[in-house]
Amino acid sequence: MLSLERVGKTYPNGVHALDAVTLGVAPGEIVVVIGGSGCGKSTLLRAISGLDTPTQGSVLLDGTSITTPHEQIGIIFQEPRLLPWLTVAGNVGFGIEDRPKPERAERVAHALDRVGLSEKANAWPRELSGGQAQRVAIARALVPRPQVLLLDEPFSALDAFTRVDLQDHLLNLWNEFKPTLVMVTHDVDEAIALADRIVVMRPHPGRIADEIEIDLPRPRDRQSAAFDFAKRRVLSALDRSLDRAVGIEYPEHKAAQGAAMWW
Amino acid sequence: MTIGSGQVTPEQGKAMRERVARWSRPVLGLALPVGLAVVWEIIVRLGLSDGRLVPPPSRIYQEFSELAQSGELLRHVLATLLRVTVGFGLGTVAGTLLGAVAGYSALVRRVIDPTLQGLRAVPSIAWIPLFILWLGIFETSKVALIAVGVFFPIYLGVVGAVLSVDRKIVEVGRAFRLSGTAMVRRILLPAVLPAYVVSIRAGLGLGWMFVIAAEFMGASEGLGYLLIDGQQLGKPAEIVASILAFAVLGKITDAIVVLASAPFLRWEDTFRAASDD
Lengths: 263, 277
What we know:
The complex is a heterodimer. By secondary structure, chain A is α/β, with parallel strands linked by helices. Chain A is built from eight helices and ten strands. Helix content of chain A is 37%, strand content 23%. In chain A, helix 3 crosses helix 4 and helix 4 runs parallel beside helix 5. Chain A starts with a strand and ends with a helix. In chain B, helix 2 packs across helix 10. Chain B is flat. Chains A and B meet through loops of A and helix 7 and helix 8 of B.
């Protein structure tokens, strides 16, 4: 069980990025955090990962406080961040260097097979396309079998087709041993395609505005009415989350706000 | 535009052009020096010049083979090579260690970097009188001068390389909970290697430059001595032969560095690797 208790973050330059975020994520649950830019989504994820420490509150994994990176928590960044001097197989096996060689080779081969890149095992990262590189990054993060996997807008730099393809890949991999997923995105379709629960955040300072359960069965049909309905709920929650900031700081956006309500 | 059956496809044409380019480029590069040498040889043979101050290729070759057969060449080459090797080794070790420490620790960098940057501004030849006073006129002062020359490009290269390691890649190491030594071994060293090889090559080039300066300041053997000897005895062929020996040795040692580092940099040589089939 991953739990955040009144997690807040104020950067040394005085920016109050995150304010008292409390959130519990059950084992195996897929939580997608969504919100406009500057609402502390990435700050929240980095606090969970232990790469940054919150200035208030605490992050707990099964009761253990997370202040530095933890072996049960994996992270996938917006960019693949592969090590260019290691082959694809070397990158995938990066996190299990301490295991005996045969076990390592077997787990790397299995992970590469699951992301459909077995034939690229000996390629260099520079020979991969953007989507392939991100698949390698997913495999690298999953090979140590973390209990929690964090994803920081992992597909935002990819084209729409590749993105949908990778979302399916991710769900496939998740199905294998059901880690807890916490994903940050600004793509509403992606959030609904993946999430059990969507957390909508609002900015200045970043905090939780709304939580929406998505109880559609998987695999989810992106064309279905239920999918569309969920999308409207998320969009209107996003609108509401931005209302206050819009009203105070950008009065000229009133018209745009009205336009978003036509449906 | 249409492509008839008899025409070459663009791919074939490109391949052919590349094949021609692969041979014509070195040939074009050689045309000027070889052409000048041949012309000069002809002029001397025809008696239009005595070639005393500017020896023709045949006389340089003759000088070269005489030096080689008498064993003189080997003696001088070995003396110079020994000085370069020891000086280069010391300069490389010192430059690498100080550069790595200064790159890794901001505190050390603030303490030593300004001093080293100041010393770098001193032309290394200016140290010669001091080194002779301190270390005598024999090998020690020569090796010290070479080491100083090699030290600076390597120190600067290593500091710069360590400082420019991508923060995002380092974060991957942190996310996988690498310890300090594992972070150095698995992230920092490979990330720094390409720039390090470049600075090693620059350092080696300066090492060859400074060995001449060192041997000019009084030596009884070495290629630098041979240069001075040729000047004092009025033997330009000996000077040119020594210069050629320097060129060959410099090229060979540089090629050794490149070949030795190539297996570790296969991932990096992007353009060549992609265009060769």
